[in-house]
Design a protein that fits this description.
Length: 332
C-alpha cells in the first residue's frame, strides 16, 4: 500500500451532513462523544467505534488524541457528519503504531458527533408552551407531578413517563432526581412545557446509569401536571405570615382552657383552609397533625394547655421546644 501525501499537508475535511439547527460548535476544552469509522486511503478499515457499540469520548484540543484528530474535532455541530483525512505527520508518523497502523499511513475518519459539552456548562431551558395565567410557579420544597421524555441528543429515547401508569411525583430540592432535572423543573407553571438540556456533570456523570451512556448530554421534554406548594425541609407545617399572638387562645376554639387532639386538628385545618398556614404536601395530613399535637402535649395527658406552650428554661436554656409552634409548626 502506497499513501500519497505531502509533508506540508494539513488535515482535509469533507462535510457530509450538518443539522439544520446548530446553535453551538465545538471548541478547545469541550468534551465530545462521537462515533467513527477509520480506514486507510485504499478503503480498508482498521478501527470502528460502531463495532464496540460505544462512542469514543475525549476532551478537544488538549492532546488526548492524535494531533490531526484534535484539530478535526473543532468547529463541529451536534449531529454533524464529516470525513477527515489525516496526513501521517498529524497522525502516527513514520513509525505507525503496533500492528494496526503502518508507518507513514494516511488515515481517513468518518465522524458522527453524538453530543458535546463543556465542564462549565449549566442546564439550558427553552419554554415551548406556557399558560396565559401563571400565578404559581414551582420552587424548592414544592411537591410536583410532571411528564417527561428523556433522549440522547441524537434523538434516541432513553425513558419516558408515558411508559408508566402514573406520571412521577417528586419534591423539588430533595435530591430525588438528578440535579439538572431538578433545576429544570423549577420556575414552571402548571401546564407549562419546556425542553431542558442537561450536561453530564448535572446528570448521570462519567459513569452513566442503567440505559444511559457515560458522559451523555440529556434532552428532556417536560410538562408540569400538578403543583402543591411545599414547606422547608424538616418542617411539617409553616405559617404563611405571622402566627396568632397569643397563640393558645386562638387554638382554644371552645375557650375551655385545654386543647385536645380533635380541637387542635380543627385549628390547623382552619389555618390551611384560610391560607394562613400550610401542611407538607404528599403526606397524610391527619398523621402530621397528630405528631405535631404529641410534640406539644408534653405530659402526654391527651390535651394541650397554655403552660405547655410557655418557654421552659429548665428544659432547654438555649432553645425552647415550643418555638416550632410559635414560628413554624414542625415535627421530626
Amino acid at each position: 500500500m502506497i499513501d500519497l501525501f505531502n509533508p506540508k499537508d494539513d488535515i482535509a475535511v469533507v462535510v457530509k451532513e450538518v443539522p439544520k439547527t446548530c446553535t453551538r460548535k465545538t471548541v478547545v476544552g469541550d468534551y465530545i462523544r462521537y462515533h467513527y469509522n477509520g480506514t486507510f486511503q485504499d478503503g480498508s478499515g482498521f478501527d470502528t467505534s460502531y463495532q464496540r457499540n460505544s462512542t469514543y469520548n475525549t476532551y478537544i484540543g488538549m492532546g488526548y488524541v492524535i494531533q490531526g484528530m484534535d484539530k478535526a474535532l473543532q468547529g463541529l455541530c451536534i449531529g454533524e457528519k464529516r470525513r477527515v483525512i489525516l496526513p501521517p505527520h498529524m497522525a502516527y508518523g513514520e513509525k505507525g503504531t503496533g500492528d494496526i497502523i503502518p508507518g507513514s499511513a494516511v488515515l481517513v475518519f468518518d465522524i458522527h458527533v453524538i453530543d458535546f459539552h463543556n465542564p462549565k456548562d449549566l442546564i439550558e431551558i427553552k419554554v415551548t408552551s406556557k399558560p396565559k395565567k401563571c400565578n404559581l410557579t414551582s420552587e424548592v420544597d414544592d411537591l410536583i407531578q410532571y411528564r417527561y421524555n428523556c433522549s440522547l441528543m441524537d434523538g434516541t429515547l432513553l425513558y419516558s413517563s408515558d411508559h408508566y401508569e402514573k406520571a412521577p411525583i417528586t419534591t423539588l430540592g430533595a435530591n430525588k432526581v438528578i440535579e439538572g432535572l431538578d433545576e429544570g423543573l423549577r420556575g414552571m407553571c402548571v401546564g407549562e412545557k419546556r425542553v431542558v438540556i442537561v450536561p453530564p456533570h448535572l446528570g448521570h456523570g462519567e459513569n452513566g446509569a442503567k440505559g444511559v451512556p457515560s458522559s451523555a448530554v440529556l434532552h428532556f421534554e417536560l410538562e408540569l401536571l400538578d403543583l402543591q406548594k411545599g414547606v422547608p425541609d424538616g418542617y411539617m407545617f409553616v405559617w404563611l405570615g405571622d402566627s396568632p399572638d397569643p397563640l393558645f387562645p386562638a387554638m382554644d376554639l371552645n375557650k375551655d382552657l385545654s386543647v385536645p387532639l380533635e380541637e387542635f386538628t380543627a385549628f390547623i385545618n382552619i389555618q390551611v383552609a384560610e391560607g394562613t398556614g400550610r401542611l407538607r404536601p404528599g403526606m397524610d395530613a391527619d398523621g402530621i397533625i397528630k405528631d405535631m399535637f404529641n410534640n406539644q402535649d408534653r405530659n402526654r395527658d391527651g390535651k394541650i394547655v397554655a403552660e405547655e406552650l410557655k418557654l421552659k428554661v429548665e428544659e432547654d436554656s438555649d432553645k425552647a421546644r415550643h418555638e416550632e409552634l410559635t414560628h413554624v409548626l414542625s415535627m421530626y
